[in-house]
């Protein structure tokens, strides 16, 4: 039987947050891969297939905005959900212009809301 689990790439430099997200996604029937910065995220996107990307903005090496730009330049069609502490309208607008499907503020959402957003985004 083929593996039909949706594969989620988590691009997040805060390891505790990334691990909790990964565990929750796996409990909900998803496959999850964690990378700790945008540079590793771009490399993963180049070599593997994903159904959705969860992306932090404030990260070392390559930040989330640069990741979004590089993904856009690569012709990426995988939906990207930004999960960040940046709550300014300008940041939200910039992420959307660069192709983010959704923008969540970490302090405003819980794990279940993130999972719901993942499901909704995959259905769109």
Automatic annotation (TrEMBL):
Q: Which GO terms describe its biological process?
A: phosphorelay signal transduction system
Q: Where is the signal peptide?
A: none
Is Phosphoprotein found in the keyword set?
Answer: yes
Q: Would the keyword Nucleotidyltransferase turn up in this protein's UniProt record?
A: no
**What superkingdom does the record give?**
Bacteria
Alphabetized, the UniProt keywords read: Phosphoprotein
Coiled-coil parts of chain: none
Residue ranges annotated for the Response regulatory domain, each copy included: 7-122
Pfam families tied to this protein: Response_reg
Q: Which residues in this protein are found as 4-aspartylphosphate?
A: 56
This chain's protein is named: Response regulator
Per the UniProt record, the source organism is candidate division WWE3 bacterium
């Amino acid at each position: 039987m083929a593996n039909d689990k949706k594969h989620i790439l988590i691009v997040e430099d805060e390891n505790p947050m990334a691990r909790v997200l990964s565990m929750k996604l796996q409990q909900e029937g998803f496959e999850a891969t964690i990378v700790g910065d945008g540079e590793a995220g771009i490399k993963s996107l180049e070599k593997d297939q994903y159904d959705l990307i969860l992306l932090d903005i404030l990260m070392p090496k390559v930040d989330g905005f640069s990741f979004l730009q590089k993904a856009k330049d690569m012709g990426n069609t995988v939906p990207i959900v930004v999960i960040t502490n940046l709550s300014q309208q300008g940041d939200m607008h910039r992420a959307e212009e660069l192709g983010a499907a959704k923008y969540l503020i970490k302090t405003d959402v819980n794990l279940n809301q993130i999972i719901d957003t993942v499901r909704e985004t995959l259905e769109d």
